[in-house]
Amino acid sequence: MQYDALTKTLLHLLSDNGFHSGAELASRLGISRTSVWKAVRALQRRGIEVSALPGKGYRVTHPLELLSETAIQSSLTPKAGRLLGGLHVYDELDSTNAHLMRLARDGAPSGAVCLAETQTAGKGRIGRSWISPLGANIYLSILWRFDDHSVVAGLSLAVGVALIRVLNRAGVMGVGLKWPNDLLWEDRKLGGILLEVTGEAHGGCAVIVGLGVNRYIPPAVGGGIDQAWADLDTVAGASAPSRNYLVASILGELLPLLNDFQHTGLAPYLPEWRRYHHLTGREVVIHQGHLKTSGTVVDVTSEGLLVLECKDGRRREFASGDVRLQIAG
């Protein structure tokens, strides 16, 4: 979904982060000042923080950077540019994963990428929702087709390593991983990975790699998140990388990874993953429906299974599937 011309123009006017009087906006938009107020209120309901100061006008209270297809494409590495199967940027979607799955069914090629400024039904693991304020974070999905369904094992772990590489190059340090799919900063969730796989008639599969990275969580939105979270604005402050830079850097790392993964598998990424895993040696609880298993995280296998040393001294292996991992205490 793309917004109407009035909403898009208002967003772009406010994205210069300066003050704009109601009279100026009314003139430039060709509407009344009352309609300007209503349009601003609609943006606020979508998560944009806009303040109104008497004598000065409207201004976003946190710098607003809108996604730019041109900026992203021009910043791609040559290899990523060759592997890109189309870049689709939307103002609003139900879910970038769901939309790209629809495009996959219609024949979209490997390397197709979907981005949105906001999601109305963002998806997390095990049916959880992903809160997606407008113009604030990264909501990105990539399609890749594999000939063999079995090679997908461990892919989410490799993607996690790729995201750490991107953040480290951008000067964001101290970020770690939580098996199987979370980015953590001081045990707070900074981002997440959601892989969705669908079989194909010829025996292969299409994989949607969905990413959510918290660039900035508005305080009014953060209060509605039901777990400890962090954003890059908190972690890196003024030096936090821009949204468009992040997207281009993520694609520069992930498109070659996906292109090569059928041949390399998880093995080249495991040493890094183990180094970045925040939970090794820590007490955790594995939830499988109503069943709970407590123990200490020991390692992961070459296929990406979590190895847990249970209270009785036995070691058990867990596939990500529908399990949920909770840090004890």
Explain this structure.
By secondary structure, this protein is α+β, with helices and mostly antiparallel strands. The protein has three domains: 5-60, Winged helix-like DNA-binding domain superfamily/Winged helix DNA-binding domain (Arc Repressor Mutant, subunit A); 69-268, Bira Bifunctional Protein, Domain 2 (BirA Bifunctional Protein, domain 2, 2-Layer Sandwich); 279-327, SH3 type barrels. Helices cover 33% and strands 27% of the residues. It starts with a helix and ends with a strand. The mean pLDDT is 91.
By secondary-structure content and strand pairing, the structural class works out as alpha+beta
What is the H/E order? HHHEEHHEHEEHEEEEHHHHEEEEE
Query: In percent terms, what proportion of residues is strand?
Result: 25-35%
Instruction: Label the CATH architecture of the largest domain.
Output: 2-Layer Sandwich
**Major beta-sheet overview:** 7 strands, mixed
Quote the average pLDDT.
91
Oligomeric state: single chain
Count of β-strands:
14
The CATH topology of the largest domain, please?
Answer: BirA Bifunctional Protein, domain 2
Number of domains: 3
Give the helix/strand layout:
Elements: H1 5-14, H2 22-29, H3 33-45, E1 50-53, E2 57-60, H4 69-75, H5 78-83, E3 87-93, H6 96-105, E4 113-119, E5 138-146, H7 155-169, E6 176-178, E7 182-185, E8 188-199, E9 205-213, H8 219-222, H9 232-236, H10 243-264, H11 270-276, E10 283-288, E11 291-300, E12 306-310, E13 315-318, E14 324-327
Parallel strand pairs: 3-4
Antiparallel strand pairs: 1-2, 4-5, 5-9, 6-7, 7-8, 8-9, 10-11, 10-14, 11-12, 12-13
Helix pairs in contact: 2-3, 4-10, 7-10, 7-11
